[in-house]
Amino acid sequence: MKLKGFTKKEVKQETNKKVYLFYTDFLLKKGRPPSLQDISDNFGFTRERSRQILERMSEEGYLLKEGKGNKVKYKPDWINKN
């Protein structure tokens, strides 16, 4: 499927990149990770869509996932590196 000259995969990759940059900028500026609502408000997604994107980024190795259920937290993969 093509969307305005881009494949669906390319659109997902670009969305992931934008969310990742927002996530890391927010973390560095505010000292805490953005909530699902923060991401939703910035990009116009639902909170569920924001969660799905963070989950996918975790599966791809861009974010580390900690916790389970309602206590899940994500952080960039570089946060623990010295």
Q: What's the order of the H and E elements?
A: EEHHHEE
The third-level CATH topology is Arc Repressor Mutant, subunit A
CATH architecture heading: Orthogonal Bundle
By DSSP (H or I, 4+ residues per run), the number of helices equals: 3
CATH-assigned homologous superfamily:
Winged helix-like DNA-binding domain superfamily/Winged helix DNA-binding domain
What would you report as the Rg, rounded to the nearest angstrom? 13 Å
Overall number of domains: 1
CATH class: Mainly Alpha
**Portion of residues in helices?**
40-55%
Secondary structure tally: strands: 4
Low-confidence stretches: none
Strand portion: 5-15%
Strand order of the largest sheet: 1-2
Describe the structure.
The chain has 82 residues and is of the alpha+beta class. It has a single domain, classed as Winged helix-like DNA-binding domain superfamily/Winged helix DNA-binding domain (Arc Repressor Mutant, subunit A). It contains three helices and four strands; from the N terminus they run E-E-H-H-H-E-E. 54% of the residues lie in helices and 15% in strands. It is globular.
List the helices and strands and how they pair.
Blueprint lengths: L1 E2 L2 E2 H23 L5 H8 L3 H13 L3 E4 L6 E4 L6
Antiparallel strand pairs: 1-2, 3-4
